[in-house]
Amino acid sequence: MNSSDQEDLRLLRESARxxxxxxxxxxxARKLRDAGGGWDGNMIRELAEAGVFGVTVPEDNGGLxxxxxxxxxxxxxxxxxxxxxxxxxxxxxxxGLLRRLCxxxxxxxxxxxxxxVLAVAWLERGPNGGPAEASCRYxxxxxxxxxxxxxxxxxxxxxxxxxxxxxxxxxxLAEAGADGLSVEERRQADGSAMGELSFSGTPAxxxxxxxxxxxxxxxxxxxxxxxxxxxxxxxxxxxFEIALExxxxxxxxxxxxxxFQVIQHRAVDLNVMCEVAQSGVREALALMDSExxxxxxxxxxxxxxxxxxxxxxxxxxxxIQLHGAVGYTDEFDIGLxxxxxxxxxxxxGDDAYHRRIWFEAREEEAAQ
Amino acid sequence: MTDWNAMSxxxxxxxxxxxxxxxxxxxxxxxxxxxxxxxxxHWHRKLHAKGWVAPAWPTEYGGMGLNAAKxxxxxxxxxxxxxxxxxxxxxxxxxxxxxxxxxxxxxxxWLPRILSCxxxxxxxYSEPGAGSDxxxxxxxxxxxxxxxxxNGQKIWTTMAHDATxxxxxxxxxxxxxxxxxxxxxxxxxxxxxxxxVRTITTLSGETEFCEVFFDNARTPxxxxxxxxxxxxTMAKALLSFERIFIGSPSLAQNALGQLENFARGxxxxxxxxxxxxxxxxxxxxxxxAALYGRFADQLKRGETLGADVSMLKIWVTECFQRITxxxxxxxxxxxxxxxxxxxxxxxxxxxxxxxKARPTTIYGGSNEIQRNILSKAVLGLPS
Lengths: 368, 383
Prior knowledge:
The complex is a heterodimer of chains A (368) and B (383).
Chain A: H1 3-23, H2 25-34, H3 41-49, H4 68-80, H5 87-101, H6 106-112, E1 118-121, E2 124-125, E3 131-132, E4 137-139, E5 142-151, E6 158-165, E7 168-175, E8 181-187, E9 193-203, E10 205-209, H7 212-249, E11 251-252, E12 255-256, H8 261-289, H9 294-323, H10 334-346, H11 351-367
Parallel strand pairs in A: 1-6, 4-6
Antiparallel strand pairs in A: 2-3, 4-5, 5-9, 6-7, 7-10, 8-9, 11-12
Chain B: H1 9-23, H2 37-50, H3 68-80, H4 89-101, H5 104-116, E1 121-124, E2 140-144, E3 147-155, E4 165-171, E5 183-189, E6 195-200, E7 209-220, E8 224-225, H6 231-237, H7 239-245, H8 250-266, H9 272-300, H10 310-331, E9 341-343, E10 346-348, H11 350-357, H12 367-378
Parallel strand pairs in B: 1-4
Antiparallel strand pairs in B: 2-3, 3-7, 4-5, 5-8, 6-7, 9-10
């Protein structure tokens, strides 16, 4: 990456940070959670005006054309203030899917412009509660079946659903509130909801069909995985700052607890963990921008998410310990970071899962 | 004379790589022990003829004059090809100190002898009571006429039994308010009746560390480098580049490569638990390399490195240890066997790697000391 690119990223980071700070930082996340979860429509419009959603969309399609590394910069800032807006979902999944399959569709422009928010539904739940083979069908313009683990399902204006059509896999658009669509909310640790969708003859518009669909979906999921990693990097960095500030001010035995060596060494380890995660994840995203081989992109996305989850789990959990009893209350912001880390870690696979994917992708690359 | 710094990084890297690959003796690649000079003398002669013995020294003193960025490339290529650093205490420690603080006479006399390895140096810093707390050192040097008379003991003096000279930190004023004051930097010949060297056998059975005893040993007064009682600040000034070098990814990367070859040969990857632990270690190395790249970029932009560079050493040495521990696990019942283990057409000395990794968290400022430094200087935590 050359220095003018670096300068562009720095400016992007500054403008995203300013925007979130002006809106109220992490305090805003608490208010939205207490109001029932969900996001702020005004914030969506402001983010759109700043060009956030179109960051990886080519300039010809109304985006900034900057790539995943730039998307990661924004995601880190989202993570720092644990903003509930579906930035990673929109950049990584919705636009990741549409820009690969139907870049001229009107929804592209609406998503980039913040006029609409879509949720993406592709996973299904089996009888034992775990993931299952997809069985959701699309025929005669109607969806039948179900989808699970849909982020943003409660507030999205529509759903991009990946289903099996008569002539192969399809991506279709179902409007929120469409006939025969029901959304069951599953409340998450951070106050957000994941949706379980069920369709019984739900009308939907076909956006793409055929062999390109699975590949586009896989790449969009990798984008979102890498961006979620960046979000966790920002979250971890801020959680560490909060803990550091706390151990400098909290006094016991007539001294700040941060003067005790055992606390100091733990703080250093968290700091090192944050720095390694930041460098590793940023490098992985930058490499994904110049990589077209699907296996290499899978390896890089998994490298990013594995590292980010490992770091975020360690940092947020140790941060609670460093806070002592107040860390276990809902009064202190550090708990919001722990809860958001839980949700972001589980979404799209945790560190153990991604180390497995990383290893498999690496083996397959070596065998190519 | 070639201006190496004017080359592009890629050109320079190729130049260095080509030379090592063509000229470095195969039997000396990735030496598991520190060699005596006689073992690597033929390589040193080649390097000397090429003018590459002292990459960091200014050209006017016979060095290559590399800037920090090029120097990093030089060392990366050296480690990549498994090129032994040779007996480089003179090059790395004494030379730069004399260049920075020495008199013209000292430069004229000592520097050429360091380059040619006519003099071979060892470092006398640590003492039994002065390890992490180095400023606690007690070895005394007192002026008597034209000489310093030295009494005391140094320890962990690497390869002292194969050195002609020692550079040392000695106490020249025992009555100072702070123990960092009153320390001087002194050069002394080893071949004299007042100097006795005893080797220390390490856990791996090597004898590269020594104790050095001084009993009225003598060195001429002109062998004081810099001002009397100012040795502590001088010695500290040398450490800034070492702090990124000691955190370089290469040791862990080489060990990871060995682990992978060995584990594959032994079928260890069939075990999903082992696969996961390997993946953890490999990702620890990759992400560390990314962080190292960030610090290296700082150097390339001409910035000085802050105390935060210490985090590289903490992470990579602990990672190196985990990798060598995994090698032992993969070796199964052979995990306690001395010497190379044959797997297919590769042989891996798992115990040698394990032992090599142990002191890395101790030397160069133990990892606990590094954490103390980071907590104060980077995180701003109170005393």
